[in-house]
Specification:
Layout (H helix, E strand, L loop, with lengths): L2 E3 L4 E9 L6 H11 L9 E4 L5 E14 L2 E9 L7 H8 L4 E7 L5 H17 L9 E6 L9 H8 L7 E4 L8 H20 L23
Parallel strand pairs: 2-5, 2-6, 6-7, 7-8
Antiparallel strand pairs: 1-2, 3-4, 4-5
The protein binds guanosine-5'-diphosphate (GDP) and magnesium ion.
The site of magnesium ion has 4 residues, from helix 1.
């Protein structure tokens, strides 16, 4: 649920990166953090174990454009993939305005991606959220690996709804398509917000699109 603060004239949207453990969720946020200048983003707060696996979640605020006199902010989160942190996962997912599902392209991990996608659906259902109203983009990460499964194979497993999701083939470690993916989900989130507002409150901002500076690809 977008947070609109009329006092500070800010709108904050929550974008959650989900997906199987070690698929590259934290790497996405680290790259965005490294590429944006400090004025545009807050600290990347990671609660991780010594072995560098996200225990609870990562969080980073990103300030985007001014739209209709309002500052648009995106709070980026990752959820822990490990099964035993399901309660945390559900909590982080609550109130999400948009999702990025990060799949690991490694051929031997396809079943794990599928299980993670199923678990995401269960969590959304338990949160009384449906993907019909929640923008989602798919990210096929680690495309650099020689053992990466063909895109068609990943599509077959993960992208067969009536209206397929937008897909980004990424190499998060090198930042390839990381911003393109973030921009796409941000745009979907803004469009959804705009549609919800349509005919509504005239004092609320009317977003038309956004870009994140430092992007390798931007949306007009
Ligand atoms: N080869 C390759 N490795 C990646 C890529 N993105 C992330 N990784 C590696 O995958 C591992 C897990 O990444 P991490 O972001 O911690 O995964 P998370 O558990 O989903 O947050 C790390 O060793 C990353 O360096 C990529 O595009 N290609
Ligand atoms: Mg992580």
């Amino acid at each position: 649920m977008a947070l609109v603060n009329h006092q500070t004239r800010e709108v904050t949207f929550k974008i959650v990166y989900a997906g199987t453990p070690m698929s590259g969720k934290t790497t996405n946020l680290s790259y965005v953090h490294a590429r944006l200048d400090a004025a545009q983003r807050g600290d990347l707060v990671s609660v991780a174990t010594a072995s560098d696996r996200t225990l609870y979640f990562d969080f980073m605020p990103v300030t985007s454009s001014q739209i209709g006199g309002y500052t648009t902010k995106f709070a980026l989160y990752t959820v822990p993939g490990q099964v035993h942190y399901n309660a945390t996962r559900q909590l982080v997912l609550r109130g999400a305005d948009g999702l990025v599902f990060v799949a690991d392209s490694t051929a031997s991990r396809l079943e794990e991606n599928l299980e993670s996608a199923r678990s995401l659906m269960r969590n959304l259902t338990e949160n009384s959220t449906s993907l019909q109203h929640l923008p989602l983009v798919l990210q096929y990460n680690k495309r650099d690996l020689p053992e990466a499964a063909p895109r068609a194979h990943l599509d077959f497993l993960l992208n067969r709804p009536e209206k397929p999701f937008q897909v980004f083939e990424t190499i998060a470690e090198r930042g390839v398509n990381v911003f393109a993916c973030l921009n796409a989900v941000s745009q979907l989130v803004l469009r959804q917000f705009h549609e919800t507002l349509a005919g509504g409150n005239p004092t609320s901002p009317a977003p038309s699109g956004t870009t994140h500076a430092g992007a390798t690809a931007t949306i007009a």
